[in-house]
Amino acid sequence: MKILVTGGAGFIGSHLVDRLVEQRHEVVVLDDLSAGDEEFVAPHLSNANFQFHKIDLLQGKEGAGSGGLTDFFEGVEQVWHLAANPEVRVGVENTRVHLEQNVLATYNVLEAMRAKGVRQLVFTSTSTVYGDAEKLPTPEDYPTIPISLYGASKLACEALIASYCHTFEMRAWIYRFANVVGRRSSHGVIYDFIKKLRRRSSPAELEILGDGEQTKSYIYVDDCVEAMFAGAGAGKSVNIFNIGTDDRVSVKRIAEIVCEEMRAFPRPKFKFTGGKRGWKGDVPVMMLDASRLKKMGWRQRWNSEEAVQKAARDLSRVEDL
């Protein structure tokens, strides 16, 4: 197939691209490199069946012809739309960023698909669409009441996608992620802890946002990519799946694991900022019910703590984090 991947030079996107190229698809990557890194897809640049274009989905002009963004969708059979602003916290300071980079960018992708007759879309959503869910693990049919602008923007994207599917005879696979961790990550609690340990002015202290008791599900990136491919067999017009592990791990325990992997001895004293949330919009307790995907044959290889350990080991080896 000819497959287009938005955000394909990013953390999860680049791992997906590796797999698609390995499967011998023709792959077109669009990425503005605001969160991604061209080095992540550099091994494929010499491949005749691979294209990379630095492009802003909100503008769609750089490297394109007269049709702008739409030109890149010519002959494409399937779109994997991963491009988004992944920072939940930024919505408190800039209320437009998730509207533009998540919702409007998704609208532009859908319009380009409609114009070129592309019928299949895979979209990466988030557990934050559920907000403070009272039911754990949380199933896909649980009410979606997000408490962050990021979660609201992803839910808006889901609604747009569903309406385009029914209006223009498209099909979509929507994946709601738990916290995805691993090599090439450029945000999140593990990444933040490693940066703090390397740059801290007080070597005896490590700041932890919240009370450290936030307890969530973490999934290693390889498991996440496997799960997305497992859901491809679903045949509805709109297919929604949770992707997560069967357990949780606390932020305090993550800090301990990172200190162990960084060999931060003596271990720094943990300084908690207080409150059960790390920031406005933070969901302190999260675990998803991924039984739909398990019925289709998918199984996680690593639990939450193992995923965190692997990710901490991955990122601790990156010198210019």
Q: What is the element layout, followed by pairings?
A:
Elements (H helix, E strand, L loop, with lengths): L1 E5 L4 H12 L3 E6 L18 E5 L23 E4 L8 H4 L3 H20 L3 E7 L22 H20 L2 E7 L1 E3 L7 H11 L5 E4 L6 E2 L1 E3 H10 L7 E6 L5 E2 H11 L7 E4 L12 E2 L4 H5 L8 H13 L5
Parallel strand pairs: 1-2, 1-4, 2-3, 4-5, 5-6, 6-11, 7-10, 8-13, 9-14
Antiparallel strand pairs: 9-12
Counting DSSP H or I runs of 4 or more residues, the number of helices is 9
Distance between the termini: 35 Å
Structural class: alpha/beta
Mean pLDDT: 94
Assign a percent range to the helix content.
25-40%
What is the string of SSEs from the N terminus onward? EHEEEHHEHEEHEEEHEEHEEHH
* The CATH fourth-level homologous superfamily of the largest domain: NAD(P)-binding Rossmann-like Domain
Fraction in beta strands: 15-25%
> Stretches where pLDDT falls below 50 for ≥5 residues?
none
Strand order of the largest sheet: 3-2-1-4-5-6-11
Radius of gyration: 19 Å
Judging by the overall fold, what is the CATH architecture of the largest domain? 3-Layer(aba) Sandwich
Largest sheet geometry? 7 strands, parallel
The total domain count is 2
Q: What is the CATH C level class of the largest domain, in words?
A: Alpha Beta
Shape: globular
CATH topology name of the largest domain, in short, is: Rossmann fold
